[in-house]
Amino acid sequence: xxxxxxxxxxxxxxxxxxxxxxxxxxxxxxxxxxxxxxxxxxxxxxxxxxxxxxxxxxxxxxxxxxxxxxxxxxxxxxxxxxxxxxxxxxxxxxxxxxxxxxxxxxxxxxxxxxxxxxxxxxxxxxxxxxxxxxxxxxxxxxxxxxxxxxxxxxxxxxxxxxxxxxxxxxxxxxxxxxxxxxxxxxxxxxxxxxxxxxxxxxxxxxxxxxxxxxxxxxxxxxxxxxxxxxxxxxxxxxxxxxxxxxxxxxxxxxxxxxxxxxxxxxxxxxxxxxxx
Length: 276
Ligand SMILES: Nc1ncnc2c1ncn2[C@@H]1O[C@H](COP(=O)(O)OP(=O)(O)OP(=O)(O)O)[C@@H](O)[C@H]1O
Known about the structure:
The chain contains 11 helices and 9 strands. By secondary structure, it is an alpha/beta fold. The structure holds adenosine-5'-triphosphate (ATP).
């Protein structure tokens, strides 16, 4: 499979209280075009830093070493004429869904306009076509009554509905890569499952590559074909989902699996082949 991007010796450090904090250390990772890859690890392991680095959204103060090489021919589409860019454009080629949809949605702008704006900016559509696209997207993310929903404001929606709108805005320009950074972590279990299923469907319909960032190994296993496990800024293990879940090589991955004891522990244990 073609690599959409190749990460080589990527290191990222932030400055905090006058000293440097290493958030990522010498990461090497290829992401194949069209794959669904999960990045997992506990809080502070560097998952968001990796997602932001890939999207080109790290703060200017971050010290970045190494490189990310993109297969730019993968980004050509009728809407996006090939150009001499060496990196994809965030918002157009890369869609990003954050944990908190309220932070990515403008509270004083109707949601239809927010989605249409993305289509106008990146696809060069006029307002009527951009609104038509926004309506279709609201239908695709299964917001009830999409025609009326175009005129609603974020505060009129539930957390799950807001996240659906944020997803619609993230895919409005037809990105090749969708990054979901803890996109379901703030939602209750049922809504979480619905959003995971929605992401799976949209990614498959649009042929997108998915980077799914989560601290939840069980959720990651539901969605991803491969899982990369991060700890203290290092990539400790990467492999096919079944391998990582059934035969983890690293003690830390085993600990993450063992820690996943709760209401949904049974399917995870069954998948891991436990007898009792
Ligand atoms: N803007 C920043 N300035 C300073 N330090 C930061 C910044 N962003 C992250 N860090 C630090 O970098 C390290 C990695 O953070 P990062 O957010 O990438 O981890 P994470 O695995 O995504 O954690 P979480 O799930 O809690 O967001 C942590 O020590 C964090 O405190």
